[in-house]
Amino acid sequence: MDLKVEEMQSILKKYGQEHLLNHYKTLDDTHKKELLKQIQVIDFELINSLYDHTKKKEKSGNDEITPIDYLDKYKLCDDYKYYENIGKKAIKEGKLAAVTMAGGQGTRLGHDGPKGTYDIGLDSHKSLFELLCDNLKEEGKKYGVTIPWFIMTSRENNKATLAFFEKNKYFGYQKDKNIFFFIQGELPMIDTEGKILIGEDGLIKQAADGHGGIYESLVKSGMVQKMKQMGTEWVFIGGVDNCLVKMVDPVLMGIAIDKKVTVACKSAVKADPHEKVGVFCKRNGKPNVIEYSEITDEMAEATDEEGELLYGESHLLCNLFSVDAVERMGANPLPYHIAYKKASYLDKEGKLVVPDAPNAYKFEAFLFDAFGKVDEMAILRVKREEEFAPVKNADSAGVDCPKTARELYKKFHHLD
């Protein structure tokens, strides 16, 4: 037997995961190499720790949750120009880059391919990627610069994403000069006994580690180092599925610089007190985002003296970070959250099992969990109809779907 295989068997035995080599002999040479490579890089201690965590009840916790201050972009009055001018200067000096998280597939939209390649139904038939790129190029022209664009793909869609950009000549960008691609991290999925699942291809079944993996991925891929070499000091991080995202906002940038914070985020007031969104708050005195499920009805409905909701600033996944902050946040993984999902797998006999109910755990980090690593951050309230048109569901859902996004996009750009 191959010395490498024996070595892997020894490691697997130590952690009770010997089954991962059950179907090794049936694989072709390429898949054999890939499987051994996967086993070699798995942090089995982490997997054991995550499995132990699945058996513990979530602590209700005695965290002190308090409201957080914010600025309303359209109530800044004279300060608007002040902040805008600070931001404009920094952008002109080439200090801003944009990161788009684009690791998802368009499956829920009935689209076969990366979500960023999806056409939301505009007359132009532009994809989400092209709509975002148009905005970046338009803003770059205003300031006489090219905004570097970093795109996070996944193992699943990386090849198709690169082929799409190559086919479209990178929409005017230049690969490895001002547009860069890197791959999101993954973690193995495990069953309820703590055993790592084997996928239909005979390889380890893995799932993306959530948008909170962005920091670690940026560091490990060398993208943070590249940003520093380019003179980038600030990076906007947003999702690919928001076709109205404003990645270049001098007001947000000016506020961050003026207030000497390393994180500045955009919010939109909740549509109603009980909207199911995460909202900004302070947890034990530190900036945080609290899930709607953690807020009591009393907290959700509480208002200040002006009638504004105390917990009304919803997180839009539109965040500006200093590059140094991203580097610090990426030095160590964030805590992982558990999701119980349906996952097909190969059993001991090599038969494919397709469950009709959740049977496996996947582990995800949330981007906003890193907010607690800073003492202060700035929050800028913007108008939802101007900056938030997500494409998450099929039209049949009626919300956050191609139809609603298309309507918002056309209205904002006066295309009706």
Give me some keywords for this one.
single chain; 416 residues; alpha/beta; Spore Coat Polysaccharide Biosynthesis Protein SpsA, Chain A; eight-stranded mixed sheet; 18 strands; 31% helix; 19% strand
What is the overall pLDDT average?
94
What is the third-level CATH name, the topology?
Answer: Spore Coat Polysaccharide Biosynthesis Protein SpsA, Chain A
Question: Which second-level CATH architecture applies?
Answer: Alpha-Beta Complex
| Protein structure class | alpha/beta
Q: Could you say how many structural domains there are in total?
A: 1
Gyration radius, rounded: 23 Å
Biggest beta sheet summary = 8 strands, mixed
What oligomeric assembly is this protein in? single chain
Q: What is the number of E strands?
A: 18
Query: How many separate helices?
Result: 13
> Spans of 5+ residues with little confidence (pLDDT < 50)?
none
The neighbouring-strand order within the major sheet is 2-18-10-13-9-3-4-5
For this structure, what is the CATH homologous superfamily? Spore Coat Polysaccharide Biosynthesis Protein SpsA, Chain A
Output the CATH class name. Answer: Alpha Beta
How far is it from the N-terminal to the C-terminal residue, by CA? 68 Å
**Strand share of the residues?**
15-25%
Share of residues in helices: 25-40%
Structural shape: globular
